[in-house]
Specification:
- With about 160 residues, this protein is an alpha+beta fold.
- The protein is about 15% helix and about 30% strand.
- The protein has helices spanning about 5-20, 70-75, and strands at about 25-30, 30-35, 45, 85, 90-95, 110, 115-120, 125-130, 135-140, 145-150, 155.
- A four-stranded antiparallel beta sheet has the order 4-11-9-6, with no helix packed on it. A four-stranded antiparallel beta sheet has the order 8-7-5-10, with no helix packed on it. A three-stranded antiparallel beta sheet has the order 1-2-3, with helices on one face.
- Mean pLDDT is about 75; it is low at about 40-45, about 55-65 and about 65-75.
Length: about 160
């Protein structure tokens, strides 16, 4: 029996665990079931048959958290988050003013409206990206030096 795994979906589910402080998340689509847990238990994937037994010595997991596929898809797509800050242009994102200095913002920082949250270099011009609203930074979605597209979510301010 040939199995294909959606590693990107597993990564997105793991990121949802980190962002929401959930301990476990499970998604089921057709004959594919994926459960990701924050405990020492392995990622378990079921395709057709029954669950694979956990490794010996693995502690018992908490009760499953009910999450719909639609909720996972929505949470996995940062662009649908109402606090997402989209890129106003195509370019290269920089999280700090120069190498070796602290980033403009980090997860957990509180920002004021208009405060510079990053720089996007486009056509040799450095464009400061201001916070569109005041709030707390809950996620930085790009890495330093990463190319970004117009409309791509850069960070989330809630």
């Amino acid at each position: 029996m040939s199995q294909t795994f959606d590693y990107e979906l597993i990564r997105q589910l793991a990121n949802i665990l980190d962002e929401t402080n959930l301990t476990e998340i499970e998604v089921e689509q057709e004959k594919l079931k994926i459960r990701v847990a924050r405990t020492a238990a392995p990622v378990t994937i079921q395709q057709g048959g029954g669950w694979a037994p956990p490794a010996a010595g693995v502690p018992a997991m908490a009760a499953p958290v009910a999450v719909s596929v639609a909720d996972v898809a929505k949470a996995a797509d940062p662009a649908t988050n109402p606090g997402a800050v989209p890129s106003p242009m195509v370019g290269t994102a920089y999280l700090a003013a120069e190498p070796g200095v602290r980033a403009f913002v980090e997860v957990g920082d509180t920002v004021k409206e208009g405060q510079t949250v990053m720089i996007i270099e486009a056509m040799k011009h450095l464009n400061q990206i201001p916070a569109p609203r005041a709030g707390r930074v809950t996620a930085v979605l790009v890495e330093n030096g990463q190319p970004v597209e117009f409309g791509e979510p850069l960070l989330i301010i809630e």
